[in-house]
Structure prediction request, 343 residues.
Amino acid sequence: MSSYLFMRDFKIHENLIKSKLITNVDKTNTKFILVSQLMFDCINMQHTRFEVVIFYFIALITKVQVSSEKLPIVLWHGMGDTCCFPFSLGGVTKFLESEINVYVKSIEIGNSITEDFKSGYLIHPNQQVNMVCEDLSADAQLKGGFNAIGFSQGSQFLRALVQRCSTLRIHNLITLGGQHQGVFGLPNCPSISSRTCERFRLLLNYAAYTDLMQNFLVQATYWHDPLNESKYRTSSTFLADINNEQFINKTYVKNLQKLNKFVMVQFNNDSIVQPLQTQWFGYYKPGQDKEIQGLKETNIYIEDRLGLKKMDDQNKIVFLECEGNHLQFTKEWFRENLFSFLK
Prediction:
């Protein structure tokens, strides 16, 4: 057979295979449909080298299966929690693994649950972000990219990861009860005694911006005093930086823009995060602690210091709300509101 006839027939059947891939793929039984239909077509081909078509067929099957795979999910816990408590993120991990059937990695800081728990209070976020960047970049199962979910303070830590860790490809970032503009008050502290919580509150009220507190207590690094904005901007060692309030880091803007969706969930009856509108990137108007301004009224948005205005114009920002207390949601709510960003 001439090379012209062979290439002509091969091209015809190449288009046939592509057509079958498009019209006959059953997502629940992809391999069976493709094998039963396309192998029959290949066997009945005339004037075409069967083995070449089989080779091309296998290549196409591999490509379709890889491209249709769901993305892994990375979780980052909040204050007073760990990667793996069965009643919190351990349960969320199993829920996602069973419902979506993907690889789920819940971030653990340190070499034990105890170290991970302490990290939520005592390991500076900058150090944590560096550690996680290195860890996730070395995970072969995340090489193709992943979706990420942050819980409480894990939300702003994950956003910092997006902005700083250029080696990772994060598709959708979901933040649940995050403190994107910081906090000014700790009405309740999860997982610690009321006496310890009160001590934290006093320390933050009077010494949040000292070098000692900025390097000692995680919550001091995202303490945002609206009565003293200049002190916050110059002394904050984490939040003011990732919000581009000290100077505009163009890498932060560029990397955040790479997100497909930035989903922020606000819990409308939150008794821990103050003010609760920080979960949607809102905050107190400067100079007082009563009146709230939404994201679009803030200088971060108006001056587009972080690229959020551009992302909003591109419909990349999603605001969701849940009628519960801090991080209190049902599986049904999670399925209905968040699964579409994870598949």
